[in-house]
Amino acid sequence: MTTKLYKASSFKYTPFDGFQEGDLEFLNKNGVEIVENIQEADIVISQNFKHLKKHFWRGLFGKKFLIWTPESRFDTHFKSKVKTFFNLVTCNIMNVYTKDVFATNTSLHCTLINKDLPLLKQGFEIKSRKIVALMSFYKGLDSETLIKDGENRDLIALRTKICLKGNEKGVLDVYGKGWPKGISKEDSREGNWVERKKQLLDNYHFNLSFENTAAYNYMTEKIWDSIENYCLPIYFGEHTNAYALFPENSFIDYSKFNNTEELFNYINSMKDAEFINRLNKCISTYNTISSKGANFERAERERMLNNIVSKVQYICDN
Questions:
Q1: Structural contact between residues 238 and 255, judged by C-beta atoms closer than 8 angstroms
Q2: From CA 110, how far away is CA 310, in angstroms rounded?
Q3: Nearest to 68 by CA among 19, 115, 116
Q4: 126 and 252 share one domain
Q5: 199, exposed or middle or buried, with CB in 10 Å at 0-12, 13-18, 19+?
Q6: Could you report the average pLDDT of every consecutive run of 10 residues in the chain (318 residues)?
Q7: What are phi and psi of 289, to 5 degrees?
Q8: Rounded to an integer, what distance in angstroms lies between the CA atom of residue 244 and that of residue 276?
Q9: What are the two backbone dihedrals, phi and then psi, of residue 163, each rounded to the nearest 5 degrees?
Q10: Same domain, 11 and 78
Q11: Are residue 300 and residue 245 in the same domain, yes or no?
């Protein structure tokens, strides 16, 4: 039996648009088909409520609904289903926080981990201790809190604070759009962002590579790009399972610092030997994943796709 999905919003760079070769074929093979006519659909899907809510009235006539997004701010529900439309319609949720979009730490981005990186040799010297941050401003310090179990899981406001403090002290350079005047050196996402990112990282040894939020399995390309370009990542490990991949004392874990001053002082006093040891641990993690090859990449991708198939089946059955 085939279940038909109608996209109520853009799904660029996702499996629903066939972002990677084989995604749509896998879904079709497992009974999930994308249709262009909402009348034909069993389930209406979107990456957020904004584009889905105008269709909720259709739930009174049998349509079902699913929000699916890997973007941490497109949907911030912590539950896998919510009641809406005067409590008459159920909307199912698959997002960063429900733990079924990012099936593992590498399920969405392991194809980017595809090289064998040489380890740093003893005798390497840190040429500059300035930190680079490649990120947009979004709402900056005004980013909304995301409270789970009494703690804020949002990282946008925190990383903004680090950038602003570091920029003020002259120990951090910001590249990205939307920042207050005089903060960002350039809006580097113009043109070929992939190549420009490599060019920028090549000039630094430390990279502030926070995610947008702290969540289980939520690990994007940020930390991998940093390692690939021989920058020691400054990451946020608390409330994540980053240490399921990385050993202790590999990336610099900001969640273990009390404030920005401690971080800046720590980097300023870091010995070359510690930098080598930390970055080589990160490189070894990278190489362990890359050595698993194409079969591992596809298996990781299919974990995520299978989650979609299972959710669609569940929605149809309930």
A1: yes
A2: 22
A3: 19
A4: yes
A5: exposed
A6: 96 92 95 97 97 96 97 95 95 96 92 94 96 95 95 97 98 95 83 85 97 96 97 98 98 98 98 98 98 94 96 96
A7: -75, -45
A8: 21
A9: -65, -45
A10: yes
A11: no
Is 67 in a helix, a strand, or coil? strand
Domain with 91 in it = 3-104+295-317
| Residues 52/67, Cβ–Cβ less than 8 Å | yes
Between 193-201 and 221-228, two packed helices, what is the crossing angle to 10 degrees?
Answer: 50
What pTM does this model have? Answer: 0.93
pLDDT tens for each residue of 50-78: 999 999 999 999 999 999 999 999 999 99
What confidence score (pLDDT) does residue 189 get?
A: 62
Give the N- to C-terminal CA distance of the chain in Å, as an integer: 16
Total domains in the chain come to 2
On whether residue 112 sits in a domain, the answer given is no
Instruction: Say whether both 258 and 306 belong to one domain.
Output: no
Residues 207 and 302 in one domain: no
pLDDT tens digits for 141-172?
A: 999 999 999 999 999 999 999 999 999 999 99
Do 17 and 139 belong to one domain?
no
Chain CA centroid to CA 80, Å: 19
pLDDT of residue 271: 97
Which helix H or strand E contains 52, and what residues bound it?
helix 49-52
CA distance 165 to 156: 14
